[in-house]
Structures are given as C-alpha cells and as structure tokens.
What we know:
Layout: E1 2-7, E2 31-33, E3 36-40, E4 47-49, E5 62-66, E6 83-84, E7 87-90, E8 96-101, E9 106-110, E10 117-122, E11 127-133, H1 139-150, E12 163-165, H2 173-185, E13 192-195, H3 216-225, E14 229-235, E15 238-239, H4 245-253, E16 267-269, E17 272-275, H5 282-290, H6 293-296, E18 302-306, E19 314-315, H7 316-327, H8 336-347, H9 353-356, E20 360-361, E21 370-371, H10 379-394, E22 401-404, E23 407-408, E24 416-418, H11 426-441, E25 447-448, E26 450-451, H12 460-470, E27 476-478, H13 495-521, E28 527-528, H14 530-533, H15 538-542, E29 547-549, E30 553-555, E31 565-570, E32 574-581, E33 584-590, E34 593-598, E35 604-609, E36 612-616, E37 630-636, E38 641-646, E39 661-666, E40 672-674, E41 681-687
Parallel strand pairs: 6-23, 12-13, 12-27, 13-14, 14-18, 18-22, 22-24, 24-25, 26-27, 37-41
Antiparallel strand pairs: 1-11, 2-3, 3-10, 4-7, 5-9, 7-8, 8-11, 9-10, 15-17, 16-17, 16-19, 20-21, 28-29, 29-30, 30-35, 31-34, 32-33, 32-35, 36-37, 38-39, 39-40
Helix pairs in contact: 5-10, 12-13
Alpha-D-glucopyranose binds near residues 196, 306, 420 and 421.
Amino acid sequence: MIRKFTFGNPFPTEAVVVSCPAEPGELPYFSREGGSISCKMASGAPVYGLGEQVRGINKRGWTYTSNCTDEPNHLESCHSLYGAHNFLLVGGEKPFGIFIDYPGTLTFDIGYTRQDTLTITPEDWNLDLYLIEAEDGTYLSIVRQFRKIIGRSYIAPKWAFGYGQSRWGYKTQEDIRQVAEGHRKNGIPLDAIYMDIDYMERYKDFTVSKERFPDLPGLAADMKQEGIHLVPIIDAGVKVEDGYSVYEEGMEKGYFCKEADGTVFTGAVWPGKAHFPDMLNPAARRWFGMKYKVLLDMGIDGFWNDMNEPAIFYSEKRLNQVLDQAAEFKGKNLDLEKTNQLLGLFSSLANNPEDYRSFYHEPGNTGERIRHDKVHNLYGYNMTRAAGEAFEELEPDKRILMFSRSSYVGMHRYGGIWQGDNLSWWSHLLMNVKMMPSLNMCGFLYTGADLGGFGADTTEDLLLRWLQFGIFTPLMRNHSAMGTREQEAYRFSNMESLKRIIQLRYCLLPYLYSEYMKAALEDTMMFRPLSFDYQGDPEALQTEDQVLLGDGLMLAPVYQQNALGRYVYLPEDMLLITASGPDDFRFRELKAGHHYVEAAPEEVIFFLRKGHILPLAQTAENVEQLDETRLTAAAYLSEESSYLLYDDDGISKDYENPDNYETITVSPDGTVRCSGNKGRILKAKVFVPAED
Length: 692
Ligand code: GLC
C-alpha cells in the first residue's frame, strides 16, 4: 500500500510516473519537530536504501546527505556521492518504505545523533512524501511497489553487457585501435571501448578532434567489424568560445542557466569557462538532446554523461574574489591560521554551495525561475533525460547505451549510472559490492564500478579480484584515470588469468541478461541483500560482503589482498561453484552454516541455491558472437525444477513478446528440456543434494 503526503508546494521532479492522490491527515510513523521528521528504529532492525552512498548495505549509524557531489575519494567519512536517491526501507516488526521526492539538499540521520532514531531534514518543506507498507511483510514487496510508481528501469542493449575497456588518456584514434588490437591479439573478449574527453576538440561537447580523430565514422565502422562499440563521453558544461556552434546557439536561444541579473552563469570545467544548459527547461533539454545526433550519425550507439552534478571547478566570480584575497597574503609571514586561510581560499573554489545558489533555471515556458540549489539534484537526471528523450525521437526502435555519473530517482528510466571516481583500493571493491543492492532498490539496474579502480595505481591482484566480481555486474567496464598505472588486462603478468575471468562473463550472460531483463520488466531487484530472501535470519542480516544475484545465485567475492579464500555464510545448503575460466567449472555441495572456502588468485567462487538452475554458454569474443543455442544447465535440485530464460534480439524494444521467454526444466535424473522454438540444445549437469 502506498500513501502520499504533500507538504507546501513541491517542485515537479517527475520521479514518480503514476498519479497518486495525496492524503490529508497526519503523517504516520513519524513525529515532526521543527524542520525535521523523526521515528524510532527498532533495535537491530536494518535500514536499507539510498542507492549510491558510502558505507554498508544497512545504512544505520551515519548521516547521509542527498546533494549530488563530484566526490573523488569516496571515504567512509563522506556524506554525499554523485546521486540523490531518497528512498529508505525501514526494517522492524512492520517494515515500511519512505521516498522523499525533494530535489534540494536532504539529510538522513540514521542513528547517528541517537542510535535508535531516524531523522530526516530537508532544507524546506516543499515536497511529496510516499510511505509504502509491505503487502506481505517482505522487504521485496516494499521495493517493488516503490519501483512500480517510479517507472520501468532503463534497458541497455545486449552488447553493453559485454566487457568494456576505458581510460582517460586514449588520445588518438590510433590509441583506440591499439586497445582493440591488444585485446584481439591476446584473445581477450571485448565489446566496447570508451572514449574519454580526449576525443573532443579542446573539450567541446559534440565535437571530434580533427587532428587526433580524423575519421571517427571510419574508426567506428572498423571497430564494429570486430564487434566493438565506441562509447564517447559527453560533459555537462559547454565551452564558451566564439564560433563554436553549440555555444553560439545556446546563447542565441537563451538556453544556458543565468544569474539573478540575467547574465549567463560561467563556471569552469575541463575546457575552462563553460555555460550550463538549463536541463530543466523542456526546450533547452530537447535542444541539448538532439545534439547527440551528430555522434549517432557517425555510427556511435552509446554514451556516458559526465560532470553533471554539475561539477564546477570554479566560477568566474569566485575565482576573481579568491585571487584578490590571496594577493593580500603576499609578503606576509603566514602562521598556522593564515596558511590555512590561504589554502582554504583555493579549496573553496570547486563545487562551492554559494555558486550553486547563484544561478537559476526556467523549468516551464512561463519565464518563472527557480534557484539552482533548490533543484540541484535534478541536473544530471535531466541531462540524461535530454539524451533519452532525443534517442526516442531519433532512434525509436533501437536501444542506445546511456549511463550517467549524477542521478536522481527518475533518471533510472533513461539510463544507468556508473559508480563514479573510485580508487584502486580493496575497500572500494567491497563498496562496489555493497552498492549494488542499494542501487537496485532505487531502480538503477544498469550499473557497475570502474573495475580495477579509477584513481591511484592498481595492482594485478586487485584487478583480478575486482573482475571476479565485475563479471556479475551489468556494466562491466575497466576504467582508469590519466596518470595512473595502465590498467588494460593485457598489460599484466597475470594476463592469462584476467583473460580467463573475462571469458567467464560470456558464459554467464544467458543468466545475467535474463535476470537483468526480468528485474527491469517486473520492477524487481537483480542484486539483493541476503536478508531479503532470508528475512528473519540474523546472520543473513549481518552478512554484507555476500549478495544474492537473481533467481539462484549468491556471490561471495574475495576482496582482501593476498587472501587465498574467505569465510562464507550459507543460510541454506548450496552448491559451491569454483571457476578459473570458461573450461573450468568445479562444483561442490556445502551445507548451511559457516565455511572457509578456498579461492586461489585465479579462481572466482559463487554459489547456486537449492532448487535452482544456472544456464551457462560457451564463451565468445563478444556478445554478437555468443552462441546461446547451446547451453549447459547446471542444477542443484532434488526434484524437477525450472528456470525462466529471457532472450531477445538485444537491440529492439519488443520486450513483452512472449517468444522472449522460455522455460528450462531439469530433473534430478539429468533430463532437461526447453520450451520455445529457438532450437536450443541443452545439456544438464545435475547435483542432487545429499540427504541430511
Ligand atoms: C571524471 C569522470 C571520469 C573521467 C574524467 C575525465 O572524473 O568521473 O570517469 O575519466 O572525468 O573525463
């Protein structure tokens, strides 16, 4: 059951797509005091949600602020990352969900000030609040109701489930060809190469450097021949430069955000001075979205949207002030306080809240304005919506890959997200694991982290262990920052192991794609905390370094350096699968309880749940080459059981076609059959649970 409460005059975020009348009356569960609402949390009950955030799956014990931020360190001490996903699931005797549809800064104090109290504080009370009660007492029913009202999650093309290689620093088309060659020569599968800001002409959106990429259409066509898609980045800020058509048109049409006095707001990003398209204004949004056509016409079919919090290195005004103030320090003897003041001046330049309060949007066609900070969290959402709406118009029958850095609930209908600028740290591998279910709750299914880590130097064992988790995430992309150690799989002495793990991804694709599509089409979660399926099991509740994946798998990634295995908690008997490559799957039954499970550096371990089936394909060089007509159904069952396989052409949008669904049925005696008429030839590998 969903109940909506409206306070003040909310900004229409369009996060929710079904109409839901607001109730008059008092808000249940919470008491309101001053600018906050609070409720008690039952002792030991979990609180889930918030999507892209730091810390655990269970969010208790910290304050989190929804304020989309370019935050490159992702430390435990952070309060905000790039997204604002204001959905919480409060566990306890009578669990409930709460979604605060509010585009400004919002703080969730989840047992930080008082261990037993949840306090939510928006900057003002113009918002819609949705309360969701469980239909059948389960956590999943709360999430599913929430997901229903926010609309179907974005569906990526199937090729985007293949392996992608990225790096900030592929400077020329020759560099891109070398990356393709490096993978091909070494037999490492590859579906995408990402193009970072280096491809543009002096960091100008929708331009391509003539010098360094003289023939992008030719390059894209050559790459496609090899089954590789090129995926360029698009940034939020538009370079200020006479003669640059995007800048000139935007100025002429008045599509950039303006300050109170009507001058266009100038902030600096990669190209230096830039203006920010008013993504909240429908005409400006359409204009910006249609610009992607220039690249679509060159044979591009995927994009990533970046710096759309929006990140601002400095505003013109603030820089001038800071430089003036800094000049006063010249020739002075700087003691501790003075030195800190001086340093503080410069560190206050980037992403300064005052700058976000200094420009405006015109969301309607009425000329009425709203100050940016009041709707800050909608910027990346609407940049991605600009692209999504344009793709609908330009390529109505084709799925285009799109993911964004910044997001708000609602953006999940137009694209996925990547998890931003992590570091090559083992703790960030674990963070990637924990973020997956939280993001799924909020509708973000197409997601993954920069595998190997973005900032700092990776190590070959970190990359290997990270890939061993990354083979399960819908977005599987190796990305790294300029100046860090080169991170392509073929650079390392353990290349063979890295390659074999990447090959495994393709074996798993029939399952992963099915689970992704079912999660999208049924508003459910591909990644779930253990407590969702084993609600009431106190150990499952405390286990946050293992996650459930789809119908029948449990993942238990190794995330510690030099570890040759790990402790795993099994809420029930499960089949341990140990694999080092596409030709090496080993199976062993493990009883419910605690186990130390060995995992040599080149081995990934995961588990198949009782009564479940895992369809496996032979590996392939890319998604296009994948032969899904020949599958092996690994099964762990004592009676006939079935698996719902979803498959389609991977590119068109005929999702509801009943032909997309087939049922694989396996019996304990090893017989296997598949409904549907796609001519699949199946083998079964059955493990019958031992009697207790
Ligand atoms: C931002 C992005 C990162 C990208 C870099 C250069 O930091 O998050 O992925 O590589 O900008 O464009």
